[in-house]
Design goal:
heterodimer; A: 316 residues; alpha/beta; Rossmann fold; Alpha-Beta Plaits; 2 domains; 6-stranded mixed β-sheet; 4-stranded antiparallel β-sheet; 11 helices; elongated; B: 258 residues; mainly alpha; two-stranded antiparallel sheet; 77% helix
């Protein structure tokens, strides 16, 4: 059934409590558009996994409403789950070989035999698991198991994919491969909800991001808009031909700027203020007037990490 | 409930469990019982009265071992639920196009398939050991029907145990005790005479495996007596009750929460 509405996922004031205690998810609202990769960014225990478990009908929300692929979540069941893929954060595997594990998963999803055989070869090749195809799952390293777990989900077709920290335990190359594969699938129309606490990944992959902390969404926008909205936290880094209190005192005299002294010798001073251009000018003036040689100067663009830390109140 | 889904789950369970370890557990132990006990006790015990006729010990033991397959297959099934919970597949499967009921039926179907497979192997071994079988069509049908009922009972029983077990060690320990207790406190290996201690006779009478063994044995020797009907009724009633109890226990298995 084609989805008429713009948002594939529409969540309104969704809450979940573990047995009446504090809310693990506390009134979150957001929407995900078709073909979008939506990032759910949060610390461990922020409520990311609980949200995915509600949206995949594994647990029932305490209150609020949501539609997923046009289906009311409160009345959704396996007909919805049939259209959705989920890579859980927790490890999951059958006690069999890599190849058989992929095949069995295809059987569970009703993928025809010929198609299963083709997909198994493609996935083993893409995820560089060909040499491990006959290995039993419990003989694999943690990273290999994770790769099988992600690969397995592509043994069936889906309209919406939930990826709950899929790259945990993977090396850089494997991680990048998975992210690129997700990007490719999204180009073909797959909608993805991607949770992570890896900010670089989210920055690389996601078009929009919701920052969640203690069950509440603190910010929700495109990556560029989030960075813009937190651009007041641009940092100017400066190194001089000498260190010392004298330079620090001079830099601290710049109005409206917070100065972080180098933690170690050779590291730059960090000047954090709302107007980085003015800060740069002031630093140059100080260097010229005091005869100190300015060795290095850089405006450090706001990173998603700074946005995240600011949003959750842990930085700046 | 989609029966095709339960079939797919049963296929998956069989494929996952088609490993040498499970096959040894399912076939090796009953085979050893059949060979060693059959020959050793067979040389000591004369004719045994069953259903108004006298049969040799090997002919008594063979259907007992066949009925024992329902218990070993049930143990494999219960282990499947525990393993799926422990290694994340229970939640993964239920996040796909499957319901809890379909998962439950999938395990019951697996138990039936394993029990019937094991029973056929035991029948073949019995035929080899005794130099042939004298099975009737009605007798064979009775054996299969009671293997199915017995599988449902033991599958449900061990599934309920897996559902309430807090750890794998706990499940395995209890399962081993049950396997030992249920098989020896039944008519699988020996008839229970009126001279046996009353307490032991009561335990045997309350053990559902006794009724699986009795009914399978009736089919094996084609002895259709009025007592068979009593055994059938008891077996069906306790199996239905156990199945309901199993569903209640199984509903307690939480998913989605760490």
């Amino acid at each position: 059934m084609p989805v008429e509405q713009e948002n594939v996922v529409e969540v309104k004031d969704l809450r979940f409590t573990y047995g009446g205690g504090r809310y693990a998810v506390d009134g979150i609202s957001f929407g995900i558009r078709k073909g979008e990769i939506f990032g759910f960014l949060g610390k461990n225990g922020a409520g990311k996994t609980t949200t995915i478990k509600m949206l995949t009908t594994l647990i029932r929300p305490t209150s609020g409403s949501a539609t997923v692929l046009g289906t009311d979540l409160m009345h959704a069941g396996k007909s919805l789950r049939r259209r959705v893929g989920v890579v859980m954060q927790e490890e999951s595997f059958d006690f069999t070989t890599v190849e058989k594990s992929l095949d069995i998963y295809g059987v569970l999803w009703g993928t025809p035999k010929k198609e299963r055989e083709k997909r198994i070869e493609d996935l083993l090749s893409f995820f560089e698991l060909e040499d491990s195809r006959k290995k039993r799952m419990w003989d694999l390293s943690g990273g290999q198991k994770r790769r099988v777990q992600v690969a397995r989900e592509f043994m069936h077709d889906m309209e919406l994919l939930f990826l709950d920290e899929p790259t945990v335990g993977l090396d850089t190359i494997a991680r990048r491969k998975i992210l690129d594969m997700v990007m490719e699938k999204a180009k073909d129309g797959l909608t993805v909800l991607f949770t992570t606490h890896n900010l670089e990944e989210a920055d690389y992959l996601c078009q929009r991001i919701a920052i969640i902390d203690r069950g509440k969404i603190l910010a929700n926008d495109s990556v560029s808009a989030l960075k813009r909205s937190y651009s007041g936290f641009k940092t100017v880094e400066a190194s001089f031909d000498r260190d010392g209190n004298e330079i620090a005192r001079l830099l601290e005299s710049i109005p409206g700027v917070r100065v972080e002294r180098p933690a170690e010798k050779g590291e730059p001073f960090k000047l954090i203020g709302p107007e980085p251009e003015k800060t740069v000018r002031a630093v140059v003036d100080i260097a010229v007037k005091s005869g100190i040689k300015l060795e290095w100067l850089n405006i450090h663009a706001v990173t998603l990490e700074e946005v995240f830390l600011k949003a959750v109140g842990a930085g700046g | 409930m989609d029966l095709l889904n339960s079939y797919r789950l049963a296929m998956r369970n069989i494929l996952v469990n088609a490993d040498p370890g499970t096959m040894v557990f399912l076939l090796m132990m009953p085979t050893l019982y059949l060979v060693f006990m059959g020959y050793m006790f067979g040389s000591l015990i004369g004719g045994i009265a069953v259903g108004g006729s006298s049969i040799d010990y090997m002919s008594f033991l063979s259907p007992g071992i066949i009925s024992f397959q329902t218990l070993t297959a049930g143990a494999v099934a219960g282990g499947m639920l525990w393993s799926d919970r422990r290694y994340g597949m229970f939640e993964q499967i239920l996040s796909g196009p499957y319901t809890r009921a379909e998962y439950l039926l999938g395990i019951v179907l697996t138990t039936m398939a394993l029990a019937i497979f094991g029973a056929i192997i035991m029948l073949i071994i019995s035929a080899v050991l005794t130099g042939g079988l004298a099975l009737t069509v009605a007798g064979f049908a009775l054996i299969i029907a009671n293997l199915i009922i017995g599988s449902v009972f033991w599958g449900a029983f061990l599934l309920a145990l897996a559902a309430i077990s807090k750890s794998n060690q706990m499940y395995n320990s209890i399962q081993v005790i049950i396997l030992f207790f249920a098989s020896f406190a039944s008519t699988v290996f020996y008839p229970v005479s009126t001279t046996a201690p009353l307490a032991l006779r009561l335990v045997v009478d309350f053990n559902p495996l006794t009724y699986v063994a009795n009914t399978v044995r009736a089919g094996y020797i084609s002895s259709f007596t009025p007592a068979l009907l009593d055994d059938e009724i008891i077996l069906v009633v306790v199996t239905a009750a156990m199945f309901l109890l199993s569903i209640l226990s199984y509903r307690r298995v939480r998913i989605g929460l760490k």
